[in-house]
């Protein structure tokens, strides 16, 4: 199986979704909160009062009790933050590529053979586009399958569908994927 | 190859989620007095969530705000900077071979070029790239190969495994600890000019020359046969007004 082993420096060639956007949002909020705290603290040290844009905070902390509305607002914000952080963690997301079986040969050590989703889709798409009766085609990976949306020029789409479906699956099988990958052809 | 760490990002988000859930749990426990019912100490629900003693309301609170602010800035900047994709570090190590007459050393940069040349010799491979990682005694390799649509992918991968990588391992003197191969695909390329078979120019009216460079069948005179000098058909001769051909 061409999956990553352990104890090597090379990075994985297949990436899971990076969750970059939520982390950037959290990091930006932390940064802005930090800048605000530094400005408030520095102004208070220098002048003894809060800056004008933060004057509404003066004495507010005394009214924000555990049984007040503000307590519930804080509780709601905490729950929302937790939810927005947990959703990206548990959302599976598609991997960036497909593992292939390594070539036959005197293999020593670990092997990882990968084709990116975009290259895989393009390879299948160009082949389907060259077939008789195909006007246009768009291929995209969706989970464990490739979905090919074909626009045909034949009067009976079913004939085109059965031919393309069988041949497309054979073509992907010829790549030697490590995990099963099926092609679903939709003819319109 | 560049990338960010998805696993580290999931850990960061999990940490923030845990802090938020903890804060929410503490609020519920205090708000409904559950801790008190269990015999634990808890703040009075009617007291402020954040409170300072009189001593702490002066400059101390300002210094605390400054300190917390600086920590938050560092924390936020660190996480932001970690999102910048980093390139995979490559290793350059030398291989020395001592012979009777002296020694030679080859760096992995030079080996990369040789491996790329080998890869591009494989039928169906249009371009290749190679990076070495690891160390001399435990070398690792990252390979990128671009194949055209007409290529047989399994045949290409078999050729890499039977020809290119064993040659490299012999050269390194060590087996590869890990080899990552990334396959790119490209549309079938048009044949270049020097790959096309250009038929030799044929003189007008002569038969086709034989293939394969033989001179058999080539006309004795390469120039076209003259059609306007010497004899001419009577019908083509200029004539007088009476119709008699001119000499």
Could you explain how this protein is built, in words?
The complex is a heterodimer of chains A (188) and B (247). Chain A is of the alpha+beta class and 188 residues long. Chain A has helices spanning 20-47, 60-63, 69-90, 117-129, 157-175; strands at residues 97-100, 110-116, 134-142, 145-152, 182-187. In chain A, the strands form 2 sheets. Chain A has a 3-stranded mixed β-sheet with strand order 3-4-5. In chain A, strands 1-2 form a two-stranded antiparallel sheet. Chain A is elongated and about 80 Å long. The model of chain A is unreliable at 1-5 (pLDDT under 50). Chain B is an alpha+beta fold and 247 residues long. Helix content of chain B is 36%, strand content 18%. In chain B, β3 (94-98) and β4 form a beta hairpin. In chain B, α4 (108-121) packs antiparallel against α5. The longest helix of chain B is centred in the first third of the chain and has 26 residues, at 6-31. The radius of gyration of chain B is 41 Å and the shape is elongated. The interface between A and B is large, with 81 and 82 residues. β2 of chain A pairs parallel with β7 (178-186) of chain B, so a sheet runs across the interface.
């Amino acid at each position: 199986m061409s999956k990553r082993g352990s104890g090597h420096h090379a990075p994985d060639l297949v990436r899971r979704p990076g969750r970059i956007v939520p982390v950037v949002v959290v990091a930006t909020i932390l940064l802005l909160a930090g800048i605000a705290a530094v400005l408030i603290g520095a102004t208070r040290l220098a002048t003894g009062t809060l800056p004008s844009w933060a004057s509404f905070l003066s004495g507010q902390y005394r009214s924000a009790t555990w049984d007040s509305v503000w307590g519930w607002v804080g509780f709601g914000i905490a729950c929302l933050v937790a939810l927005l952080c947990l959703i990206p963690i548990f959302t599976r997301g598609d991997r960036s590529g497909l593992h292939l079986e390594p070539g036959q040969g005197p293999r020593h050590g670990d092997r990882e053979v990968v084709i990116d989703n975009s290259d895989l889709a393009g390879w299948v798409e160009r082949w389907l586009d060259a077939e008789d009766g195909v006007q246009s085609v768009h291929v995209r990976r969706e989970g464990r399958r490739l979905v090919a949306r074909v626009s045909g020029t034949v009067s009976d789409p079913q004939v085109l569908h059965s031919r393309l479906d069988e041949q497309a699956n054979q073509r992907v099988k010829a790549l030697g994927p490590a995990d099963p990958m099926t092609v679903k052809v939709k003819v319109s | 190859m560049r990338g960010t760490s998805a696993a580290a990002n999931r850990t960061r988000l999990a940490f923030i989620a845990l802090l938020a859930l903890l804060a929410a749990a503490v609020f519920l426990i205090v708000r409904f007095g559950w801790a008190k019912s269990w015999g634990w100490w808890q703040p009075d629900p009617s007291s402020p969530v954040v409170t300072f003693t009189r001593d702490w309301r002066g400059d101390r609170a300002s210094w605390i705000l400054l300190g917390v602010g600086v920590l938050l800035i560092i924390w936020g900047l660190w996480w932001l900077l970690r999102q910048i994709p980093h390139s995979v570090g490559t290793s350059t190590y030398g291989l020395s071979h001592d012979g009777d007459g002296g020694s030679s050393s080859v760096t992995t940069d030079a080996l990369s070029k040789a491996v790329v040349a080998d890869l591009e010799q494989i039928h169906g491979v249009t371009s290749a790239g190679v990076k070495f990682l690891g160390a001399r005694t435990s070398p690792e390799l990252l390979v990128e190969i671009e194949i055209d649509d007409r290529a047989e992918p399994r045949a290409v991968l078999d050729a890499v495994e039977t020809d290119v990588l064993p040659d490299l391992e012999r050269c390194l003197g060590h087996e590869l600890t890990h080899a990552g191969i990334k396959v790119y695909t490209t549309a079938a390329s048009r044949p270049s000019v020097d790959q096309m078979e250009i038929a030799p120019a044929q003189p007008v009216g002569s038969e086709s020359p034989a293939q394969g460079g033989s001179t058999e069948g080539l006309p004795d005179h390469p120039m076209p046969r003259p059609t306007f000098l010497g004899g001419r058909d009577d019908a083509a001769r200029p004539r007088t007004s009476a119709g008699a051909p001119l000499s």
